[in-house]
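Please review the protein record below. Tell me whether the encoded fold seems credible here:
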Amino acid sequence: MAAVGLLILVATPTDAYEVTAVPDGATITGVVKFVGPLPKLDPIAVTTHRDVCGERQASEALVLSAAKGVKGAVVLIQAVARGKKGGAEVVLDNSRCALVSHVTAAGPNDRVSIRNSDSFIHNTYGVRGSSTVFNVALPAKGQTIEVTKHLKRPGVIRVLCGAHPHMSAWLIVHDSPYFAVTDDQGTFSIGDVPPGTYRVTMWHAGFRPRGVDRDGRPQYDEPRTVMRTITVVPNATATLNFELR
Protein backbone atom coordinates (compact mmCIF):
# COMPACT_ATOMS: atom_id res chain seq x y z
CA MET A 1 0.00 0.00 0.00
CA ALA A 2 2.86 2.39 0.71
CA ALA A 3 4.11 2.22 -2.89
CA VAL A 4 0.64 2.99 -4.22
CA GLY A 5 0.41 5.99 -1.91
CA LEU A 6 3.73 7.33 -3.17
CA LEU A 7 2.53 7.13 -6.79
CA ILE A 8 -0.58 9.07 -5.86
CA LEU A 9 1.44 11.79 -4.19
CA VAL A 10 3.68 12.39 -7.21
CA ALA A 11 1.04 12.20 -9.93
CA THR A 12 0.67 15.84 -11.09
CA PRO A 13 3.12 18.76 -11.47
CA THR A 14 2.34 21.64 -9.10
CA ASP A 15 2.20 24.17 -11.97
CA ALA A 16 -0.89 22.38 -13.39
CA TYR A 17 -3.06 23.77 -10.60
CA GLU A 18 -5.27 26.79 -11.40
CA VAL A 19 -6.30 29.36 -8.79
CA THR A 20 -9.95 30.42 -8.94
CA ALA A 21 -12.67 31.71 -6.63
CA VAL A 22 -14.56 29.13 -4.55
CA PRO A 23 -17.75 30.97 -3.49
CA ASP A 24 -19.58 27.86 -2.29
CA GLY A 25 -16.67 25.95 -0.80
CA ALA A 26 -17.07 23.11 1.66
CA THR A 27 -14.92 21.96 4.58
CA ILE A 28 -13.59 18.48 5.30
CA THR A 29 -12.68 17.77 8.91
CA GLY A 30 -11.75 14.65 10.81
CA VAL A 31 -9.32 12.83 13.03
CA VAL A 32 -6.63 10.20 12.50
CA LYS A 33 -6.57 7.64 15.31
CA PHE A 34 -4.13 4.86 16.08
CA VAL A 35 -5.53 1.35 16.38
CA GLY A 36 -3.59 -1.71 17.51
CA PRO A 37 -0.59 -2.60 19.68
CA LEU A 38 1.81 0.23 20.37
CA PRO A 39 5.39 -0.18 19.12
CA LYS A 40 8.35 0.25 21.47
CA LEU A 41 10.20 3.35 20.27
CA ASP A 42 13.61 3.74 21.87
CA PRO A 43 15.05 7.24 22.29
CA ILE A 44 17.55 8.32 19.64
CA ALA A 45 21.18 8.76 20.67
CA VAL A 46 22.69 12.21 20.09
CA THR A 47 26.35 12.15 19.05
CA THR A 48 27.06 15.85 18.40
CA HIS A 49 26.56 18.93 20.61
CA ARG A 50 25.34 16.80 23.49
CA ASP A 51 26.03 19.66 25.91
CA VAL A 52 23.14 21.56 24.32
CA CYS A 53 20.88 18.83 23.01
CA GLY A 54 21.30 16.13 25.62
CA GLU A 55 22.40 12.53 25.21
CA ARG A 56 19.12 11.29 23.72
CA GLN A 57 16.01 12.60 22.02
CA ALA A 58 12.58 11.01 21.90
CA SER A 59 11.56 9.34 18.67
CA GLU A 60 8.85 11.22 16.77
CA ALA A 61 7.98 8.29 14.53
CA LEU A 62 4.64 7.92 16.31
CA VAL A 63 3.25 10.72 18.49
CA LEU A 64 -0.18 10.14 20.05
CA SER A 65 -2.60 12.11 22.18
CA ALA A 66 -4.22 10.61 25.27
CA ALA A 67 -7.10 9.51 23.03
CA LYS A 68 -4.63 8.00 20.50
CA GLY A 69 -5.02 10.79 17.98
CA VAL A 70 -2.04 10.71 15.60
CA LYS A 71 0.07 13.84 15.32
CA GLY A 72 1.92 14.41 12.03
CA ALA A 73 -0.25 12.44 9.62
CA VAL A 74 -0.87 14.21 6.31
CA VAL A 75 -4.33 14.29 4.71
CA LEU A 76 -4.38 15.14 0.99
CA ILE A 77 -7.33 15.66 -1.33
CA GLN A 78 -6.38 14.20 -4.71
CA ALA A 79 -6.90 15.61 -8.20
CA VAL A 80 -8.18 19.09 -7.35
CA ALA A 81 -7.32 20.96 -10.56
CA ARG A 82 -8.84 24.36 -9.64
CA GLY A 83 -9.56 26.11 -6.37
CA LYS A 84 -8.25 28.32 -3.58
CA LYS A 85 -4.92 30.09 -3.59
CA GLY A 86 -2.07 28.81 -1.48
CA GLY A 87 0.79 31.06 -0.46
CA ALA A 88 1.70 30.09 3.10
CA GLU A 89 5.12 30.71 4.63
CA VAL A 90 6.46 27.27 5.56
CA VAL A 91 9.56 27.16 7.77
CA LEU A 92 11.41 24.01 8.75
CA ASP A 93 13.48 24.98 11.78
CA ASN A 94 16.68 23.46 13.13
CA SER A 95 16.07 24.02 16.82
CA ARG A 96 17.92 22.36 19.73
CA CYS A 97 19.17 19.60 17.44
CA ALA A 98 15.71 18.73 16.10
CA LEU A 99 13.91 19.54 12.88
CA VAL A 100 10.68 21.32 13.73
CA SER A 101 8.15 20.28 12.70
CA HIS A 102 8.87 16.59 12.23
CA VAL A 103 6.24 16.49 9.47
CA THR A 104 5.62 19.50 7.22
CA ALA A 105 3.61 19.92 4.01
CA ALA A 106 3.55 22.51 1.24
CA GLY A 107 1.61 23.20 -1.93
CA PRO A 108 1.61 25.54 -4.94
CA ASN A 109 2.59 29.15 -4.16
CA ASP A 110 3.82 28.25 -0.67
CA ARG A 111 7.26 29.59 0.22
CA VAL A 112 9.41 27.00 1.96
CA SER A 113 12.50 27.97 3.96
CA ILE A 114 15.02 26.22 6.21
CA ARG A 115 16.07 28.07 9.36
CA ASN A 116 18.82 27.59 11.94
CA SER A 117 17.81 28.60 15.47
CA ASP A 118 20.88 26.97 17.04
CA SER A 119 24.27 28.56 17.69
CA PHE A 120 26.12 25.90 15.67
CA ILE A 121 26.10 24.77 12.06
CA HIS A 122 23.40 22.63 10.49
CA ASN A 123 23.64 21.08 7.03
CA THR A 124 20.02 20.41 6.05
CA TYR A 125 19.27 18.41 2.94
CA GLY A 126 16.20 16.82 1.39
CA VAL A 127 16.12 13.51 -0.50
CA ARG A 128 13.40 12.17 -2.78
CA GLY A 129 14.10 8.51 -3.48
CA SER A 130 17.82 8.44 -4.29
CA SER A 131 17.99 12.07 -5.50
CA THR A 132 19.00 15.08 -3.42
CA VAL A 133 16.39 17.82 -3.84
CA PHE A 134 18.09 20.57 -1.83
CA ASN A 135 21.22 20.87 0.32
CA VAL A 136 21.85 24.00 2.39
CA ALA A 137 24.49 24.85 4.96
CA LEU A 138 23.38 27.15 7.77
CA PRO A 139 26.42 28.05 9.90
CA ALA A 140 24.90 31.06 11.69
CA LYS A 141 22.15 31.31 14.28
CA GLY A 142 19.05 32.95 12.80
CA GLN A 143 20.06 32.18 9.21
CA THR A 144 17.22 31.26 6.83
CA ILE A 145 17.49 29.94 3.28
CA GLU A 146 14.52 29.56 0.94
CA VAL A 147 14.30 26.27 -0.99
CA THR A 148 10.98 26.77 -2.81
CA LYS A 149 12.54 26.61 -6.28
CA HIS A 150 13.62 23.02 -5.63
CA LEU A 151 10.08 21.82 -4.82
CA LYS A 152 8.33 21.92 -8.20
CA ARG A 153 7.34 18.25 -8.19
CA PRO A 154 4.89 16.75 -5.69
CA GLY A 155 6.15 13.91 -3.56
CA VAL A 156 7.64 12.75 -0.27
CA ILE A 157 10.94 14.32 0.75
CA ARG A 158 13.07 12.96 3.58
CA VAL A 159 14.90 15.79 5.37
CA LEU A 160 18.17 15.10 7.20
CA CYS A 161 21.09 16.96 8.76
CA GLY A 162 24.59 16.13 7.61
CA ALA A 163 26.08 17.45 10.86
CA HIS A 164 23.70 15.60 13.21
CA PRO A 165 22.83 12.05 12.15
CA HIS A 166 20.01 11.71 14.70
CA MET A 167 17.99 14.53 13.09
CA SER A 168 15.28 13.80 10.54
CA ALA A 169 11.95 15.10 9.27
CA TRP A 170 9.47 14.71 6.40
CA LEU A 171 8.29 17.29 3.88
CA ILE A 172 5.28 16.42 1.74
CA VAL A 173 4.84 18.50 -1.42
CA HIS A 174 1.29 18.39 -2.81
CA ASP A 175 -0.06 19.49 -6.20
CA SER A 176 -2.76 21.71 -4.69
CA PRO A 177 -3.38 23.63 -1.44
CA TYR A 178 -5.88 20.97 -0.36
CA PHE A 179 -3.97 19.22 2.40
CA ALA A 180 -3.49 19.35 6.16
CA VAL A 181 -1.09 17.97 8.78
CA THR A 182 -2.81 16.59 11.86
CA ASP A 183 -2.33 18.48 15.12
CA ASP A 184 -1.50 17.25 18.65
CA GLN A 185 -4.95 15.67 18.95
CA GLY A 186 -4.84 14.03 15.52
CA THR A 187 -7.41 16.40 14.02
CA PHE A 188 -7.39 18.19 10.67
CA SER A 189 -9.51 20.63 8.69
CA ILE A 190 -9.35 21.53 4.99
CA GLY A 191 -11.49 24.46 3.88
CA ASP A 192 -12.72 26.09 0.64
CA VAL A 193 -13.10 22.73 -1.08
CA PRO A 194 -15.00 22.97 -4.40
CA PRO A 195 -18.17 20.82 -4.21
CA GLY A 196 -17.71 17.37 -5.73
CA THR A 197 -16.53 13.83 -5.10
CA TYR A 198 -12.90 13.26 -4.17
CA ARG A 199 -10.39 10.64 -3.23
CA VAL A 200 -8.66 11.60 0.01
CA THR A 201 -5.38 10.04 1.13
CA MET A 202 -4.04 9.82 4.67
CA TRP A 203 -0.24 9.42 4.72
CA HIS A 204 1.93 8.50 7.69
CA ALA A 205 5.70 8.01 7.65
CA GLY A 206 5.74 4.59 9.37
CA PHE A 207 6.53 3.79 12.98
CA ARG A 208 7.70 0.22 13.58
CA PRO A 209 11.48 0.09 14.20
CA ARG A 210 13.66 -1.51 11.53
CA GLY A 211 17.18 -1.00 12.89
CA VAL A 212 19.53 1.81 11.84
CA ASP A 213 21.17 2.93 8.61
CA ARG A 214 24.94 3.12 8.01
CA ASP A 215 25.09 6.53 9.71
CA GLY A 216 23.27 5.27 12.79
CA ARG A 217 19.92 6.89 11.96
CA PRO A 218 16.89 4.94 13.20
CA GLN A 219 14.90 3.28 10.43
CA TYR A 220 11.18 2.50 10.51
CA ASP A 221 8.88 0.48 8.30
CA GLU A 222 7.41 1.83 5.06
CA PRO A 223 5.02 4.79 5.04
CA ARG A 224 1.35 3.91 5.35
CA THR A 225 -1.44 5.28 3.19
CA VAL A 226 -5.19 4.95 3.57
CA MET A 227 -7.55 6.13 0.83
CA ARG A 228 -11.16 7.15 1.23
CA THR A 229 -13.79 8.69 -1.08
CA ILE A 230 -16.03 11.55 0.00
CA THR A 231 -18.65 13.79 -1.60
CA VAL A 232 -18.93 17.39 -0.38
CA VAL A 233 -21.81 19.74 -1.07
CA PRO A 234 -21.78 23.55 -1.22
CA ASN A 235 -21.18 25.46 2.02
CA ALA A 236 -21.27 22.31 4.17
CA THR A 237 -18.88 20.53 6.51
CA ALA A 238 -18.16 16.85 5.94
CA THR A 239 -16.43 14.53 8.42
CA LEU A 240 -13.84 11.99 7.31
CA ASN A 241 -11.95 9.91 9.88
CA PHE A 242 -8.98 7.60 9.38
CA GLU A 243 -7.38 4.76 11.31
CA LEU A 244 -3.64 4.14 11.44
CA ARG A 245 -2.73 0.52 12.17
In short: The longest helix spans residues 2-9.
